Amino acid sequence: MSLLVIGSVAFDAIETPFGKTDKIVGGAGTYASLAASYFYDKIKLVGVVGEDFPQSEIDDFHKHHIDTEGLQIKMGEKSFFWSGKYHNDMNSRDTLVTELNVLGTFDPIIPDSYQDCKFLMLGNLSPQVQQTVIKRLHNRPRLIVMDTMNFWMNIALDDLLETLKMVDVLTINDEEARQLSGEYSLVKAARKIVTMGPKYLIIKKGEHGALLFHEDKIFAAPALPLAEVYDPTGAGDTFAGGFIGYMAHMGEVSFENMKNAIIYGSALASFCVEKFGTEKIKNLTKDDIVARVQEFVRLSKFNIIS
Amino acid sequence: MSLLVIGSVAFDAIETPFGKTDKIVGGAGTYASLAASYFYDKIKLVGVVGEDFPQSEIDDFHKHHIDTEGLQIKMGEKSFFWSGKYHNDMNSRDTLVTELNVLGTFDPIIPDSYQDCKFLMLGNLSPQVQQTVIKRLHNRPRLIVMDTMNFWMNIALDDLLETLKMVDVLTINDEEARQLSGEYSLVKAARKIVTMGPKYLIIKKGEHGALLFHEDKIFAAPALPLAEVYDPTGAGDTFAGGFIGYMAHMGEVSFENMKNAIIYGSALASFCVEKFGTEKIKNLTKDDIVARVQEFVRLSKFNIIS
User: Tens digits of per-residue pLDDT, A151-176?
Assistant: First the structure.
């Protein structure tokens, strides 16, 4: 039994009101697998990098018990590169550079040793590639979580809708939920989206927390109010990785477990934004996480009896 | 012992994507006192109306055990009138008409029978008028809650800062907290604002819930996700009224009681927006409120042990 994470493994160059980085390692696959590694120790990564990708970063995956047999290294080619600049509110950003490089022709190869996968995290990538991964698994995983973004709704909506039919949980932000459903009310948006395939919908609202929708049930998780947000890059991927890592740890797919998984994912995401890139989420301890999750408990607890 | 509510008692004409009203009764004092009336039965209203204000509306206050001895009726004059149009997102609106009328010269007279006030709700009004009310009370109330808005920050900041020093709880929205503090981060904004006078700060975030700050503690309350928001007018006043009504009911001023008070205030606000004007919050039952509060409990409960 294992947790398979697919997503970009890449370079980012980031500018925020707090500073600027050169090329640092990022990518949905990187953030999600690192976050998941704090909850589960059989994580298998599928992705592609160029020969410019540092071995030390691959060593760091191994230190986190992340299997990289499925991480293809394309000699003579370059890794995916994204550069962006955040506005003062940290909620919006401009993309400065996107170089697809190895990601442009990415064919996700699933090693035989990955076929025991019971939990699948489809990090943000083209829905066509996400779908290929599902099809190449001999047995359907117990839980498939899919992350996506408005970019794919704009250029590959048909593929996206096709892939959606094959997954259990979709994670998108509030604007994307509105775009996908054509409904402004998030309740109405959720009602539509859960008929498109995923039985569970998680709407990520950044500093306002997250909402989980399933059947007629809703769970609202707060975000931890932070004094400083240095770099929001990867927060959504980290959230998703923490979420599915916790679910894999628990084993059973239920609404109750997902509520806790959202709190753990939110806790990991709150660490992610406190430093640039993966610096913070590479270096957490179990105690850090327990203490942070207790902050979420204190933050949202009140004493009206049910 | 009583709860004194001061605020506008007025006419509104409202246009939302769901419809349009003629002049209907509104105003901060109206919404706040009606909301508080579900928790506490000694509510005393201070305000001013013109002779155009219908007796039937005053009778409705009485039905809710709201004392109107302090509601001045100015013969030959007209009540305050506001007209606004909400945009499709319901989060922003344009003011179409503001006629101050009787509110332009409002001198808040406190009847002797109101001097037993232990809880004071200063609904959104000029900070000068709010301050006058505090000064005219012979004994300082146990809890003073002040609501205000960006309008007063723009035109009467000095008065506002002076009044702030005299209150215990300030309720404002996130943009107003940023404007008042000059800080984008709400955590930093709160740290500054709680040095300006109020030891407690409530930041109202509309569909994203509310945050309570006190010393180093934070409480995050969710908003109930609603399929339809017909009319947001008065939601903030209703929230504040429900909040202080619950606090007066409990009697003791504590962070723990305030957390519950925010949930009750949020529940009342969630009813308010489901119909135009005061229609919904005039006609609630205790059972309606208990059931709605249980929705908040279910919405935010998870099972990580503290």
Answer: 999 999 999 999 999 999 999 999 99
Question: How far A149 CA lies from chain B's nearest CA (Å)?
Answer: 21
CB pairs under 8 A between A and B: 106
Residues 6+ apart with CB under 8 A from B21: B12, B13, B14, B15, B231, B276, B277
**What's the domain count of chain B?**
1
User: Residue A185 — very low, low, confident or very high, per pLDDT cuts 50/70/90?
Assistant: very high
CB A229 within 8 A of CB A223: no
pLDDT of A258 > 80? The answer is yes
* pLDDT tens-digit series, residues B90-126: 778 899 999 999 999 999 999 999 999 999 999 999 9
Residues B238/B206, Cβ–Cβ less than 8 Å: no
Residue B43 lies in a domain: yes
Rounded to an integer, what is the distance from CA A300 to the centroid of its chain? 24
B residues 195..224 contacting A (CB < 8 A): 205, 207-209, 211, 217-223
Under an 8 A CB cutoff, do A296 and B304 touch? yes
**Is B244 touching A (CB cutoff 8 A)?**
no
Confirm whether A90 is domain-assigned.
Answer: yes
Residue A305, in any domain of the structure:
no
Distances (CA, A) of B184 to B82, B180, B187, B292: 30, 10, 9, 33
Q: Report chain B residues whose CB lies below 8 A from the CB of A260.
A: 302-304
Least CA distance to B17: which residue of chain A? A184
| Closest chain B C-alpha to A130 CA, distance in angstroms | 31
Domain coverage including residue A187? 2-300
ipTM greater than 0.90, yes or no?
yes
At residue A234, the 3 state secondary structure works out as coil
| pLDDT tens per residue across span A211-247 | 999 999 999 999 999 998 989 999 999 999 999 999 9
Residue A56 to residue A35: CA distance in whole angstroms: 18
B263 to A304: CB separation less than 8 angstroms, yes or no: yes
Is A112 contained in some domain? yes
Identify the CATH number of the domain in which residue B259 sits: 3.40.1190.20
Tell me the pTM.
0.95
CA gap B3, B45 in Å, rounded: 9
